[in-house]
Amino acid sequence: MRKTFTKIVITGLFFLPLRAHAQTETITGFTTITSGTQKQLESRFDQQLDAQNIGAAIKTFSAKPHHISSAGSKEYATLIENKLKSYGFDTRIETYTVLFPTPITRVLEMTGPTTFKALLKEPLLKEDATSGQQGQLPVYNAWSADGDVKGDLVFVNYGLPQDYEELEKLGIDVKGKIVIAKYGRSWRGIKPKVAQEHGAIGCIIYSDPKEDGYFQGDVYPKGAFKNEYGAQRGSVMDMVIYPGDPLTPGVGATQSATRIASHNEAPNLLKIPVLPISYHDAEPLLKALEGPVAPPDWRGALPFTYHIGPGKTKVHLKVAFDWKMVPCYDVIGMIKGSKLPDEWVIRGNHHDAWVNGAGDPVSGLAAMLEEAKSIGAMVKGGWKPTRTLVYCAWDGEEPGLLGSTEWAEDHGAELQQKCVVYINSDGNERGFLEAGGSHALTKMMDEVAKGITDPQTKVSVYDRHKAREVVSAAGTKAKKDVLAETTMELDALGSGSDFSTFLQHLGIPALNLGYGGEGPGGEYHSIYDSYDLYKRFKDPTFAYGVALAQTAGHVALRMSESELLPFDFTDLYKTLQNYTTELQTLTETMRDNTAIENKLLSQSKYVLASDPSKTFIAPKAKDEVPYIDFSPLQNALVTLQKSTDSLVGVIKKANAAGGNHDALNKQLYQAEQQLLLKNGLPRRNWYRHAIYAPGFYTGYGVKTMPGIREAIEQRDWKEAQEQIGLSAEAITKLAAYLSIIMR
Amino acid sequence: MRKTFTKIVITGLFFLPLRAHAQTETITGFTTITSGTQKQLESRFDQQLDAQNIGAAIKTFSAKPHHISSAGSKEYATLIENKLKSYGFDTRIETYTVLFPTPITRVLEMTGPTTFKALLKEPLLKEDATSGQQGQLPVYNAWSADGDVKGDLVFVNYGLPQDYEELEKLGIDVKGKIVIAKYGRSWRGIKPKVAQEHGAIGCIIYSDPKEDGYFQGDVYPKGAFKNEYGAQRGSVMDMVIYPGDPLTPGVGATQSATRIASHNEAPNLLKIPVLPISYHDAEPLLKALEGPVAPPDWRGALPFTYHIGPGKTKVHLKVAFDWKMVPCYDVIGMIKGSKLPDEWVIRGNHHDAWVNGAGDPVSGLAAMLEEAKSIGAMVKGGWKPTRTLVYCAWDGEEPGLLGSTEWAEDHGAELQQKCVVYINSDGNERGFLEAGGSHALTKMMDEVAKGITDPQTKVSVYDRHKAREVVSAAGTKAKKDVLAETTMELDALGSGSDFSTFLQHLGIPALNLGYGGEGPGGEYHSIYDSYDLYKRFKDPTFAYGVALAQTAGHVALRMSESELLPFDFTDLYKTLQNYTTELQTLTETMRDNTAIENKLLSQSKYVLASDPSKTFIAPKAKDEVPYIDFSPLQNALVTLQKSTDSLVGVIKKANAAGGNHDALNKQLYQAEQQLLLKNGLPRRNWYRHAIYAPGFYTGYGVKTMPGIREAIEQRDWKEAQEQIGLSAEAITKLAAYLSIIMR
Hints:
Two copies of one chain form a homodimer. By secondary structure, the first copy, chain A, is α/β, with parallel strands linked by helices. The first copy, chain A, has three domains: 13-98 and 325-444 and 492-566, Zn peptidases (Aminopeptidase, 3-Layer(aba) Sandwich), CATH 3.40.630; 101-323, Glucose Oxidase, domain 1; 570-741, Transcription Elongation Factor S-II, Chain A. Chain A has helices spanning 5-9, 32-47, 51-61, 71-87, 161-169, 190-197, 209-212, 279-287, 358-380, 402-410, 412-418, 442-450, 461-472, 475-484, 500-505, 531-538, 543-561, 569-602, 605-609, 631-657, 662-670, 706-713, 717-741; strands at residues 90-112, 116-117, 141-142, 147-155, 178-182, 202-206, 234-235, 274-277, 314-335, 340-350, 387-394, 419-425, 431-437, 510-517, 692-695, 699-704. The first copy, chain A, is globular. The relative contact order of chain A is 0.15. The interface between A and B is large, with 49 and 48 residues.
């Protein structure tokens, strides 16, 4: 499901602490001797990885449509289980019963000034063997409401809150109207949600060729980019409230689970109909719009003048869905730990796709299965993992992380006891390592990244990652800062893949790993996410499938074999320090901007600068930004720093002493749970992590210290102050917890 | 001819000195008593101005094509003379003999992979009465070389030096090829010049709908923007070397003038053929290109993927011109000064157009004629100007400032003796006052702007100008800075209209005035620059014609009537101080960037960050930026400050003393001549002003302190040091000159 992942999360973290190059003889978590053994283990692991095998798996698992509830999904779940079994894993399929709507009716037509009926169909292409297969889900947005609406059409750009502020200035209201928004800039689900908040009765989401079509590159089948008929399926469940089965928030969707009576009562489902369309279908609608010309940054790449509307353009949107309960097949494979069977290192990737999903998710799934094969081979060779390794293939990720969420909710208590780390992956392609997750794992990840060779350039994937980072850094100062860094930073995690419940609901340390950036295209969630396209444009030699298998595999093996788990809370502390500075800067910037904007408004500068022949309604002045007390947060960080500083010593001692560290290890991997907020986040208490959450108005995009940050962004100063208190409490709790370790 | 004037020149000047609001009882240059008389004079002047009359004049003077050498041009010159005569001016037409090429052959065709023949024609429209008239010049670039070339086509973005740096990284060379460049980002003449420097054999310039078509707004006739067939005529003479008749640099093109033997020897003419085309004609050529996909900011708004080429696309470009000598009719009207007949206040606007030119130049011309009418009426009423008023309508501005340049060169010595100021205007439309010129006139201009009411908002044109400035300022800091300002700043003048020779060759104080910003469109230099379009989209009530007449008229009357000419060299000093700071910052920034870029190159970061499946050639490291000695400039400024400080006192004293200030006045208006460089600018000694010149690689765009700035930009550190010395010399000369006044 993940997409434009890096683009978004990178905004989460500004600068990183400087540290000496971590590439030493010993690996964090191991002694000098065991470091050597571990390195041998990892190279034995690497030798088993086979790019051609990964390619074959991608072909196999994308041969048919396999969305949740399809025949393909069940067939592939069974096939995955059999593979894992054959590798020597104890396997089972855990089945949950979840709600999953599929379309019965999809109609979009223009009834005036001219008439036009949208195709809503991606054609079969002779260059793409699986295009046009039977049983492929048609183009739709899962969790749209049923609806049959007629009305004026208004173009709302990306459909974000700031776009509606622009509309207000132009005197345009969407109440009772149907809006058309572009894909991009936010997770798709935000667009209908904000439209609904503004009184729209329906929402069309289209792919503009500017972001997702010929403007970007040659279109399919000549190139990989979206052709005029391509459209993007996807969930519009409001999963920033909670993901998973909408009827069973917080609990596993077992047969016997108590459920919300009807999808109409689910608090994370929309009340208005939504439909995604291609630019072929969008063109006549947009072209017919009247009203003001759209602001420059609203205009796309279609060959006419973009107007906002409304005008004579009348649109009829009708969608109806089959809201059925379906089975959700999670495949679980285990290899019991020889010494610590009750400490689980969990690795996961989803197996369901919107259609054939060669890239999303099969490219990641194939790499994970290759890891499992290699581990299995070592086990057959007599090796045994110290901790238990759990390999999972999730169903129903696309509609809203259904499989992973229900499983993690179902096994929540046990996971909080046993799970050392959850390692996630999803779609994968040629390019650069993208790693996000719990910041106490920064050092471990840094060491792993420096040990993996980039298939194309033969430098480490760390070096390539850094090269891209410094080249894309804006300005001399930023470039200097990046050059000064000597470690791989971790992006903060928002949402968009199966790590969410583990990290943000249960407080389990998590990582999300993948390669990308050199396989751009427009196949995402379309029938063209096929083996043929993947092979031509994404990772022709499947070498990056191997790179992912190595990266995730090395992480899994270090987490399963280390004597002392490689958590470093100093890195977490430094990250929190940076976030706190960010929040203070954010507040000051908002204060400055508000003051100057209000001054300009009071002097009617905007009116005088605007063209009197056009409608311009000056916005209302905003309330001034008060000074907020950040001291509780700052004091909590001082306490945390003390704890983390002394913890360094404790770990050194323990390392030197050797022997059994089981108690200490358990305390280390459970530490992150201390950061869970007692009552969760405001208005969405399913999300309990004080540091990481998807943004209420960005979706996949992370908000770090979300309680505080979003209160500030929403100008709710009272809540901001409360949230500072609550986050400070959580951080102090962690500090106290870590200092207990030292006794 | 001017276009995107503001956009470019605004970059010239960053922040402005703060000063108290200048709106006082007395007007600078007048006593408390005479200020009152002057105000009455100006309101009498205003009462005579009639919008309908201006509208009628725009209709009259755009009824026929009237480019230089056309029947229309001669007819209109005579009509202008008769009007001025009827207003009471002593008039004459001064005729020069200049070279002016018109097209005989224009062929552009694609010979492969498919065939296509460019239309090169703007169609007649029923909504536009003068479209498709007989005798309209076809679409072409004047001063293109004759040529018949065949070759591969390469897309070079805007055709600027940095675009060729990008091509080098992609391993693409234009030697022996034909380039196609977009209009925009620079004066058009820069594009073929840079193409020629890189070995191209031909240059096509097209209007992309992104900058100049449907992306901007509805196209003509529905809206004012360029339709698919519209194309932009214009000169590609390299007038940054020298403007005017290419055969007579530095001297008036009289019958008897010694001329360069042939246009082939003129140093400011191209050696390669150039042709401007519409996006209708460009589309098949661009669409057929192969090779790498163009970088994101190279892509326009045509509905396909932009490639750079080369590929199979073969192009044939053939142009031939009739290089004939033609008469150039400058209309000169004078009203002799009653007290100071040998002090001339000169007002000018060109009368020639590329086609019908309702906007460019007739909208400015009509305003100027309305001023002349009003002044004439006052003279008939018994009033007499103190100084001589000279109203001029120039011919041949479009091909390269021919009329104004030849006249100013012809009368250079006399003008340097007599001319107090040259006040220019050109195209005019609804919107905001744009004023540029000699910075010693800042205070005078500020006072005038504060006294003129904006027709739409009824605040002063100063207030509206400032409102736009603060709203468009980027960032809180910039907005605060603008809010703190209390005066109208003057933009520095580059080129693009008839002020150039007066200011940059002769050192005569000059101003360029106009309104704009609320009449955007694509008619520029096309057959659609018509009365019909102007009336609908540019200034429907002609109220801004009146505003321009008021603005330029008040300036003319203050310059002609003031007892003490309102020059304030403190403003000039402060401006030079800012330019010097800019140059130092520019050097430091370049030093920083060079250091970091070279570091990234030495660590092959760019190679590692680039996609190995695509060609990428890392650029060579640039020479480090040495430390340059700015002290000569800084010391010169200290001297200048001393002079200007004491001059303030001298002027106060003189004011108090009253009586005859003739000697002082003459010294004041001749002061700017002290800033002329003995040997002019490097490689273009026609340009002699140490402070203002059009950019060697921007064209119309100004370069302030050009000798120094361009040496730095071109990384010629030795020349930069020399130019600092020479500019310092000129500034010291001015300082000494001003201190002499005080004796």
